[in-house]
């Protein structure tokens, strides 16, 4: 890839009509390219292209950033969930409570680990799993609870910590979207047995392809994930894990992280805090412009932003009347949007065997009908936000003022 081939804005009038994609990181890459290029050369010269020195370095940097005792790099957020669940022994039909409104991988990971998802409804204000609903869903087979930190805020981890303790459940977090988020001074993913990070390109810390990691303070869980990601070979791991080679005890998989992804992520981690601050500015600009616009039923509420508690605007989601009509109108204006998530998990065909019906989780179903995510990434300008908001206003009122 050549830096000079990346698109850039020529002048003001081009900026006024240029499409606004749902996601882009072209500017971020242009800025970081010299550092990334040097690291990629190092990878090429090293002769070790996955599971090598860049991956070990990234794991150390992420441990510093999150405060996790152990960070284990794998090849996606989905694999991180599967291996974390397996490392916690949640197979053999173990029931794991999860929200019905989340990315499908939250629940398919449970199936792949050998467990059984138990869906619950969400809090309609925060979109996080509702702890009261989760408590009502507990059965004799329930062994774990896995809230998801969705969009721009953490689920109520204090409530889930109490719930897990009262019912003897393992607490895990699907913190795939939650890098940079903290509650009570503790990073997302570290409030129970462990959590995950996804580095899918559009995530707050995105790679140039797929990558993920497990976060945990538990040395045993970390060692098992480290073995599982590499064919179950306990010694054939990197970094701070012991170098013994006794053959495979666990039936592992190949979920090694590529060093080129680790190299990209190390460079991007160095500007993550700037990116998070930029996201907050852009989100505040959206909220200011969209509050009170007819047709926009709900804009995100304020998030926490303090020393011990911080949420991060990963995506900017509003609830809209005639959501699909709005998406089409914005697409016609060259503005990309995304619907996370159009179908609640309990109504997806792959979970038909769980026997759920429409109406089982009304808040999740309502969120699926009305939510729409607007473009939000550090490359975006306030002028872009103005254009998106003007197009939304025009769709509902026929005028931009
Ligand atoms: C992105 C995401 C995942 C999966 O991560 P991948 O890296 O894409 O495999 C899992 N759960 C949630 C909530 C996510 O947003």
TrEMBL record:
Molecular function GO labels: pyridoxal phosphate binding; transaminase activity
Gene3D superfamilies referenced in this protein's UniProt entry, alphabetically: Aspartate Aminotransferase, domain 1, Type I PLP-dependent aspartate aminotransferase-like (Major domain)
Presence of keyword Transferase: yes
InterPro entries linked to this entry: DegT/StrS_aminotransferase, PyrdxlP-dep_Trfase, PyrdxlP-dep_Trfase_major, PyrdxlP-dep_Trfase_small
One Pfam family matching this protein: DegT_DnrJ_EryC1
Keywords assigned: Aminotransferase, Antibiotic biosynthesis, Pyridoxal phosphate, Transferase
SUPFAM superfamilies on file: PLP-dependent transferases
BP GO terms, sorted: antibiotic biosynthetic process; polysaccharide biosynthetic process
Keyword Transferase carried by entry: yes
Domain of life: Bacteria
Residue positions of the active site: 203
PTM sites of type N6-(pyridoxal phosphate)lysine: 203
Family the entry assigns: Belongs to the DegT/DnrJ/EryC1 family.
Name recorded for this polypeptide: Aminotransferase DegT
């Amino acid at each position: 890839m050549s830096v000079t081939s990346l698109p850039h804005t020529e002048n003001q009038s081009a900026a006024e009509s240029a499409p606004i994609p749902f996601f882009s990181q072209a500017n971020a890459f242009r800025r970081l390219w010299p550092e990334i290029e040097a690291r990629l050369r190092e990878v090429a010269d090293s002769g070790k292209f996955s599971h090598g020195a860049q991956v070990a370095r990234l794991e150390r940097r992420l441990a510093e950033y999150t405060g996790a005792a152990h960070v284990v790099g794998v090849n996606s957020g989905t694999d991180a969930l599967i291996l974390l669940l397996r490392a916690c022994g949640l197979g053999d039909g173990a029931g794991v409570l999860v929200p019905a409104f989340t990315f499908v991988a939250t629940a398919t990971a449970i199936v792949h680990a050998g467990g059984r998802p138990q869906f619950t409804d969400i809090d309609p204000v925060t979109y996080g799993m509702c702890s009261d609903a989760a408590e009502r869903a507990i059965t004799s087979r329930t062994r774990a609870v896995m809230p998801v930190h969705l969009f721009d805020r953490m689920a109520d981890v204090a409530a889930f910590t109490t719930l897990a303790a009262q019912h003897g459940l393992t607490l895990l977090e699907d913190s795939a979207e939650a890098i940079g988020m903290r509650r009570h001074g503790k990073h997302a993913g570290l409030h129970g047995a462990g959590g995950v990070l996804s580095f899918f390109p559009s995530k707050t810390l995105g790679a140039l392809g797929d990558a993920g990691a497990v976060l945990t303070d538990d040395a045993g869980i970390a060692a098992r994930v480290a073995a599982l990601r590499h064919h179950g070979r306990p010694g054939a791991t990197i970094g701070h894990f012991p170098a013994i080679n006794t053959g495979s005890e666990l039936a592992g998989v190949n979920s090694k992280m590529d060093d080129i992804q680790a190299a990209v992520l190390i460079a991007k981690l160095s500007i993550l805090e700037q990116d998070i601050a930029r996201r907050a500015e852009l989100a505040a600009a959206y909220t200011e412009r969209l509050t009170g616009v007819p047709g926009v039923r709900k804009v995100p509420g304020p998030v926490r932003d303090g020393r011990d508690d911080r949420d991060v605007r990963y995506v900017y989601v509003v609830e809209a009347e005639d959501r699909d009509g709005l998406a089409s109108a914005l697409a016609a204006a060259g503005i990309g949007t995304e619907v996370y998530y159009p179908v609640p998990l309990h109504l997806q065909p792959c979970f038909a065997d769980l026997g759920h019906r429409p109406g089982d989780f009304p808040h999740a179903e309502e969120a699926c009908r009305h939510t729409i995510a607007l473009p939000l990434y550090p490359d975006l300008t306030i002028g872009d936000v103005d254009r998106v908001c003007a197009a939304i206003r025009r769709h509902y009122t026929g005028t931009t003022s």
